[in-house]
Predict the structure.
Amino acid sequence: MNYPIVRFAPSPTGYLHIGGARTALFNWLFTRKHQGKFLLRIEDTDLERSEEKYIDQIISALDWLGLDHDGDYILQSNNLSSHQAALDQLLAQGKAYRCFYSKEELDQLRLAAEKAKKPFRVPTTYRDLSQEELNKHLQDKKEFTIRLKVPEGETRFEDLVFGNITVQNREIDDFILARSDGSPTYNFVVTIDDADMKITHVIRGDDHLANTPKQILIYEALSLPVPTFVHLPMILGSDGKRLSKRHAATNVQEYKEKGYQPKSIINYLSLLGWNPDSNEEIFSINEIIEQFELNQIQKKPAIFDEKKLNWVSGQHLQKSSIKELIEAIKDLDLTWAEHHSEDFVKKLLLLLRDRSKNIQDIIELGNIIMSNPSSYSQDELHNIFKGNNFEVIENFISGLEAEEFTQSNIEQLIDNISIQCELSLGAVMKQIRFAITTITYGPSLVEIIILLGQDTIISRLKKFVQHST
């Protein structure tokens, strides 16, 4: 565990997925806990789908989350010469071979095996060709792939999450290291790249678990040190199916745009598969680093629950300072509350902070409270004010004009109107809130009234009555 070196290796074929962010986080936490190195490798060898904009977005998302990588990021495409050198070495040592079966031929053999209800195995026809036979195929310019000669025996490894795993090598075909166009395959290049980067721990999703025996066989064929493997549980939606847009936003950028704080996302992602030795669920980043251990990662799939995320986010909002909130708001809306005093903004944020799940909630609800209503939902209007009876609002206006504008007087006025109009306290407050803000939810009504001030409240209420009658 001393000075581990890990890597996060996304493909620049799309935005940073929330699952990828969890993988990056666990790598980052492990190295920050043990004073290691967290390296970033961009696997850009899929030339048709890789785009520069996705590289920029991945790096931007990691920076926003605070997952700083050590040194410059590495492009996989810059390591092609090392990939080729390793291929040449395996061929020269007789540990790999050129296979001249075409895709069409293999498809036919596979179909025949299926019809015969037999398991399909790639024939080893070309595994041990003589030099003369090999030269003849090459002279005929017949296309070939390069396959690893899988040895007899078994491949064993200890995964720090899933424990000891043994795979019989006879269950593994001589798999392809390089395609017929010369391009190396995923399992081959990641093995060479990890070895070149001196990676000590490969921490990745458990969808890669089946790749691990093949990669170990490549390490062993090249006499390279085999890293420690750590496979993280899959993240599922609330219905137990693979996480997708029907469950929640799936890329980090969306959560940034929705106004979630990085510390909230980090806290929530850390709980997807990691089980700290406590009942606490709200952590600062430093607290997560201090407590994080690989042996606390669970095998069972993690369930992404947006309600839980919102709860975690809300807890962090409550702990955020006014300065932090203002800075976060300005990242999304530079003009928010620009015409209001610093004291007003502070009081408004104190009202909103404990009742919001993210910064966007604060912005939107704050805008509603600060704005002078210009229209009202007719459906809500008829539902709240039965028969267009505005007695509550008219009495409230009269009371505000007659009494000193204090919190206790306002509360007493609302109680009196409730008794006088024979309505529940909730119904009275709902009518007043709607008339002032056009909505029926939000922070304490009395605190909103005090914050906006007597003149503003009376003006809004009179405008409402005039508009609605």
Observations:
- The chain has 20 helices and twelve strands.
- The chain has a mean pLDDT of 95.
- The first strand starts at residue 5 and ends at 8.
- The first helix runs from residue 18 to 33.
